[in-house]
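During the reporting period, we have paired protein sequences with backbone structure tokens. One record among many follows, to show the layout:
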Amino acid sequence: NNEIPVADNTYDYVYTSHLIEDFTDTINGLKKFIRILKDDGNLILVFPDQMKYEAYCKKNGQFLNPYHVHKEMGYEFMIQNLNQIENISYKIVYSSNCEIDSNVIIILKINKI
């Protein structure tokens, strides 16, 4: 439950790569990122599709990251979590759902209501 030590509405962009999949409470993590984002700011999320990531690791004999929390982590999971956050609306500016590898990229324009 540690807060990000930054004032509310500070940044035009918040970028996170391969972190949110380690949060037990995804919605709370998203809220923390959004809190420090200015209204009409951009939230950039990069994270694995867990099922595709696991298949890739199995195929290539690689160990799984033990800190990944959600078996269902992926594009739809993230959208469902975003849709549960009150007092925001968002527009997807860009998305890539594992088009290159097992990673999802979502860039959102966040409006605080």
